[in-house]
Amino acid sequence: MIYSYQRLESYIIDLLQSMGCSKYDSKIISDVLIKAELRNISSHGVSRLKDYVNLWKTKRINPNPDISIVHETLSTAVVDGDSSFGMIAGEYAMNLAIKKAEKVGTAWISVRNSNHFGIAGYYAMKALEHDMIGICMTNANPLVAPTFSVDRLLGTNPIAVAIPAGKYPPFVADFATTPIARGKLDLMHKKADKAPEGYVQDKDGRPSNDPNILTSGGAILPLGGDYLHGSHKGYCLGAIVDIFSAVLSGANFGPFVPPSVAYLPVLENQPGIGTGHFMGAMRIDAFQKADEFKAQMDLWIETFKNAKTDSYHESVIIPGEPEREWEIKNMKNGINILDKIIEDLNIIALEQNINPL
Amino acid sequence: MIYSYQRLESYIIDLLQSMGCSKYDSKIISDVLIKAELRNISSHGVSRLKDYVNLWKTKRINPNPDISIVHETLSTAVVDGDSSFGMIAGEYAMNLAIKKAEKVGTAWISVRNSNHFGIAGYYAMKALEHDMIGICMTNANPLVAPTFSVDRLLGTNPIAVAIPAGKYPPFVADFATTPIARGKLDLMHKKADKAPEGYVQDKDGRPSNDPNILTSGGAILPLGGDYLHGSHKGYCLGAIVDIFSAVLSGANFGPFVPPSVAYLPVLENQPGIGTGHFMGAMRIDAFQKADEFKAQMDLWIETFKNAKTDSYHESVIIPGEPEREWEIKNMKNGINILDKIIEDLNIIALEQNINPL
Lengths: 357, 357
Hints:
- Chain A is about 40% helix and about 15% strand.
- Chain A has ten helices and twelve strands.
- In chain A, strands 2-3-4-11-5-6-7 form a seven-stranded mixed sheet, with helices on both faces. In chain A, strands 9-8-10 form a three-stranded antiparallel sheet, with no helix packed on it.
- In chain A, α1 packs antiparallel against α2 (about 25-40).
- Chain A is globular, with a radius of gyration of 20 Å.
């Protein structure tokens, strides 16, 4: 069914307030989820609310966090999220990065004791309105086997980078460090499709075409797929995200990252606290005059848009372009939510005594 | 033939001094090339000297540069390399990043008007002895077609990240944002091998197995290979390296990056100056106490080393491990240089009136 984003927002804010979140925090969490829905990244939208409610019920998400700075320098900080919704710790950290970058040019915040924060691109894009480049990464529960491994040691650990342009919309890259995200595998399984070669392996590390292989000890492969095609580079990327997000902050790393669903237990003897993120902001004018930089970014974008393409495609895509087109379309026409998800959300509404969708 | 690294160093320093480089600069350039040879990255070692000499003859490399800071803040700078050897601009920029990071926690330097700088890992690793994380990237002459493109718009644009550990050697990732580097394609061509699927495409954007396809309008593919396997993510990575290295600094970006060989001309109407690099240094203790961070990195490394592997491999590789093993071996046993390369170097020795190898 189609809902306006305003209707979804009103549901989300009602729900979060019923869980004890402040109105202010509820709006932030809603903004991140709505942004994902508008940009057609529905794996990170309202479908996540069911998991969030269950994590809150088991006290793994704290609706009233006391977020604090554990340590800081002029261009850095470690932030403790106090088991908050990842969006609240994420918003706090990115705002802090922007504030510090205003003073010294750039700033980098590593976050511990957080939870699933939605789409990384949301936080990176916050820097744009300050004429800054925004960078955001997060670790995530382990589903990925590094090259040669059978064990799942890394999450799909995304990287987002948002770069302002002039007359053109900004460059917004936001991608998992794997060929595919888990949500798309689930979709293939539901449709009884096979997974293409290079997406997953079975519990012994052999190539597999079963999109449901994660339920029987299989793993997602790093970007590159196999060693011959550079999976060790995808593994390096996932590892860098993990170390910046979790070893720098004191969060859990690698296989110890807590699951973002309540039905999977948190491991005992964890080496850190909660999930980790890493955020950065770089003032453009710490390098170049902002106008000159933006004019050069416009030229960069034109150069790539005007490149010759293969016979199947009209133009090279500038990172962020498809998501922005969806955003414009979905703001106007509304957002399509699957019946199964609406059903779940309306059961929650009944439990929490709020208006259903 | 096998040479000690000291013998190679003496040749390189003689050669560079004969070209007008200072003794100090010659040693830095030699260190970068020797590091590549020791680490078995011979595509970036002494085989490059022939190109460097030709670039110097055509005045595209300046042996006596006046490197300057164009603009700076407490945590950033734009550096102009004055057409120097990339190693000289690179060393200058990384030292500046380290100096600034000492004061404010982290620092980021974007470099323009530089040239080919050898292996990115060399600069990233310089941060390690200061208990800092080092980051280094560079753009390079265009050989890579972004997803859907037929035109070559990006270089193999490498990323290097060096992270200190405690009792274990550091984590050192250093990788091109493509499945393969150009040097390996050349080797396949020489051996009359076919290139595996997912490495290159022909001039019309069709998959190709010809490792020599770059000479007939073909292109290297981004990491991921094709869209189905996430080549748009590899394209994003290459684009981010390009923008940080060149748009932030005012160097040439994308298809305008000058060739690192003299037999290819520099394009007219360039949008920037020379080749660009981007370097960063982050003090560990700007986030965590250095000892605690290193103990956690040791745990990270142990966790990954102790993971279960597939039946063909003994353990998961920690980034930097194979190169370090080569370095120890080659320091002891010497470095094998191909006869064809020795021949070239000895012709140069004759021209430049220095001792041959």
